Every structure is written in C-alpha cells, then in structure tokens.
C-alpha cells in the first residue's frame, strides 16, 4: 500500500516572511486540521490567502486540507504550483512533489505520479516514503499496462471475430443476392420463353389467317376465271353462230347466182 503521509507540511514549513494577520488564520487552520476538521481548516487557509495570496505556507496547507477531503484535483493544482515555483526552498519543493505524487496516485494518473516521486527523490534522495511510493506506483503502472495490453488483445480478438462475422454475413448476403439474381434470371428466361412461345403462336395464327386469306383469294380468282371462261365461251358461241349465218348466207347467194347464170333467158 502506498504511504500517503503528508510531509509535516502544517508545521514544518517556514513562514517565509508572512505578515502577522495571515499567520493568525494559518494557526487557526492548523488547530482545526489537527482535530480532523479539514473543511473548517480549509476555510481558515483561504482567509490567509485572501490576506496574502503569495503565502507559501497558506497554499501548501490549503492543498493538504483539500487532499484530506479527497479534493485531489484541486490539491494537485496547488502542489504543482509550489513544486515548480522559481526560487522556492528545496524542502518546500520536495514536499510539494511528494504530495503531488500522492494526489496523482489517488486519481490513478500513474505515469505522472511516477515522475512526481522521482522529482521528490532528486531533491531528497534519502526519502524512504517517496522511494516506497515510487516502487508501488511503478508496480501498479506495469500491472495496468499489462491489463491494458490484455484488454487491447481481447478487443482486437473481438474486433476480428466481429469482422469475421460481418464477413460471413456479407458472404451470406452475397449468396442470397446471387441466388435471388439467379432465380430472377430464371424467371426472366421463363417469361421470355413464354413470350416467345406466345409470339410464335401469334405468328402462326397470323400465318394461318394469311394462308386462309390467300386461299380464299385464289378461290375467288378461280371463280372469276370460270365466269370469264363462260362469258368467253358464250362470246365464241355467238361469234360461231354469226360465222355460220354468214356462211349460210354466202352459200345461198352462190346458189342464187348460179341458177341465174344457167337460166335460159
């Protein structure tokens, strides 16, 4: 378990030139903090900062009171400012880096937490609490990375399964689509065959009708020819009768002429 002990920030930090009035609020906050009344202590530290916004002790102790109330993100901001402030004392900066590591650890920000503990150890290499917390943070980070890797592998496996399933579904859809297209083509072929058959039947009927009409036309032509032949025959008969009449008349004339010639006048 990480050692989350604050570095005696409430009483060990120097006043660093604070005026009397903010010190009075800080002392009141310290008494409340010692009783475990962290919310009330925070209010006193805020009063100290209202009196002197540059108070290092006021900001540090305010961050501690917020940390104890599990306001880790708010405490983090104060610790970061104190740890990186130019011209700050090494003791204040080391304590700020250490407490910053604790606040980050509570938020499960393990990579940043590891760096904060390293910075604390650079300033105070003999800080066993910082060394212990660093090893614990590293162990947690490695475990988290392993879990993330396993989770990523599981996610990738699931993605592959989903992809394969999607591909199978797509293949099935393609097969169904091809089957539908094949059936549609068969239906279209059948419809075309039926239409061709119907057209052929229609053509046959039309040809039959045409043939019948032609036959009737031929019959009508034949009947007209017979009538023409009868009329021609009658004309020939009349012509023949006329010819016979002429022949008879000529014969009669010849007889009369001959008699006249042989007559004894």
UniProtKB/TrEMBL annotation:
Keyword field: Repeat, TPR repeat
Origin superkingdom: Bacteria
Biased composition (Low complexity): 143-156, 167-180, 206-227
TPR repeats: 94-127
UniProt region (Disordered), positions on chain: 142-265
PROSITE patterns: TPR, TPR_REGION
Segments of skewed composition (Basic and acidic residues): 157-166, 181-205, 235-248
Annotated InterPro entries: CellSynth/LPSAsmb/PSIAsmb (IPR051012), TPR-like_helical_dom_sf (IPR011990), TPR_rpt (IPR019734)
One Pfam family, short name: TPR_16
Biased composition (Basic residues): 249-265
UniProt protein name: Uncharacterized protein
Source species of the chain: Candidatus [Bacteroides] periocalifornicus
